[in-house]
Amino acid sequence: MSHRINGVVHVVPISDRFNYFTAPGRNRKVIKTDLDQAHFLIGAAFPNSGVKIENELNNPNFRIKKSVDEILKWYMQIGDLLEIRQSARTALQLVEHWRSRSRRTAVQLTLFDTLEEEE
Questions:
Q1: Contact 45, 88 (CB under 8 A)
Q2: What is the C-alpha to C-alpha distance for residues 114 and 106, in angstroms, rounded to an integer?
């Protein structure tokens, strides 16, 4: 992410963005875009971040966008630091696992609902 001040573009490191997203008293509503979500997840995947990605993904107020997966893959491949690439990989694995578990649960509920209707 970058921002412009007096015509000069400054790159904001993911760690700074993560600190902004998780500052005391700040709610997750500031995480709006798919890039925000990807940066938050990468930051959360850092060792000792203090954030459990699984808890965030299970939070009904945190609706992760499908495009986040592709952004995480991109950071995995071209992240400028090994730490960023590794954290993006970890975040992507957790997101993919969460998505597959969510789909299985939805399918199972649908099957059980159908069986109940037949009785």
A1: yes
A2: 12
Task: Summarize pLDDT for 23-82 with one digit per residue, the tens.
Answer: 999 988 899 999 999 999 999 999 999 999 999 999 888 889 999 999 999 999 998 899
Do residues 62 and 27 make contact, with C-beta atoms less than 8 angstroms apart? Answer: no
Kindly state the tokens that stand for 60. Answer: 């009904």
Residue 89, CA distances (Å) to 29, 36, 70, 77, 94 in order: 25, 17, 11, 9, 9
The tokens for 18 are 């993560």
DSSP letter string, 36-97? HHHHHHHHHTSTT-S--HHHHHH-TT----THHHHHHHHHHHH-SSHHHHHHHHHHHHHHHH
Tens of pLDDT, residues 68-83? 999 999 999 998 899 9
